[in-house]
Model the fold of this input.
Amino acid sequence: MSTSIAGGPELPQSRRLVTEIPGPVSRERFARRQRFVAGGVGTTLPVFIEAAGGGVLRDVDGNSLIDLASGIAVTGVGNAAPPVAARVADQVRAFTHTCFMVTPYDGYVDVCEELARLTPGDHAKKSVLLSSGAEAVENAVKIARAHTGRHAVVVFDHAYHGRTNLTMAMTAKNMPYKQGFGPFAGEVHRAPMSYPFREVTAVDGTDAADRAIDVIDKQVGAANVACVVIEPILGEGGFVVPAKGFLPRLAEWARSNGVVFVADEIQTGFCRTGDWFACDHEGVVPDLITTAKGIAGGLPLAAVTGRAEIMDAVHPGGLGGTYGGNPVACAAALGAIELMRSQDLNAAARRIGELMFSRLRGLAERHPAIGDVRGRGAMVAVELVTADGRTPDPGRAAAVSAYCHAQGVLTLTCGTNGNVLRFLPPLVIPEQLLSEGLDVLADAFAATA
Ligand SMILES: *Cc1c(COP(=O)(O)O)cnc(C)c1O
Done:
């Protein structure tokens, strides 16, 4: 007999600890995990989850934790969100797979039509659907190379684009993503990013862009560049928001040099920053945009969307994959997008951002360890530094995180130096729960001072 455990928004929206974290049942399950799961797969917090929804994760010991992670910016619409769950259930009963390249179905085309409508710019757009973010980035590079007949790919300091061979080359940070996994794909070149908190010379956004363009011109040559690939707000690299003017100047340079401008919005997309896409904030219109994470409420789906003439540069059969645009994942995406519209999750993200920014700025006044508060909408981070106000302090970030975890608040860290605490609450989190999570964070700073 199977028992059904209800998640979704029905799950009581409160923090409740009935054991230490992790509890005895989670510890036992974790020992089994250690026996059968590859050691290379990491764990942020070793509690096993049995239900989730709204802003809560409930574990197998009966603890309810506040979710400030959304499974890394994935469940913006909430876990087991009703329109997602309903459409997935219907689709699973109808059919689970045909392979879109063998025999097509409407869900795939519906998602591509939504992407054409929602992504920046009102030009003719087409999409290819894939199963992971890294796969989307790989395909964006393939498309840009086919379109331009050029090979070079330009990426930026602190970038994160995935864990496949090409995307490891594009990712900046060695440990843990690249160590021991080379040799890496060639023709990937790195340019300096705009990083306002750590700027020494190029404080202005357009100056920072010119600095990057100079590196590209001198070290690669504009005529060799197929594409620049950039996260409009860095994700794993530390939630760095480039200075105003950086992205528009870079996009303008790409356009005038026949370089495909690719925005990697895998972490920033789908309402996370208070707009459909982070590029929207400065009116930047990328040639290609990669999406994944927030698109389908937790089911694996990713896409490359872009100018029809660039997308169509690839010969028939040149793009695809067995599972890309799986019908169940497409049904989930359509349910998720429906919810983003009906609940106005862009407005929800902006409200979350206002609350987090005001609380975190107050905290920064009391704790000089917080060197910078940054982000946009419901994608917010604090960068921690030592007493000199500059030196990265990853130890403090780990200590604050550990305190939050022990108190039932799931937080994540990021940044090239591991000294950034990032907050990615579900966009449907009740305000009182978010506020309680931030209370615990304040306690964590006091307790680790
Ligand atoms: C997570 C992420 C990726 C990789 O996505 P996967 O689905 O993990 O392959 C690529 N780019 C950015 C900006 C990301 O945040």
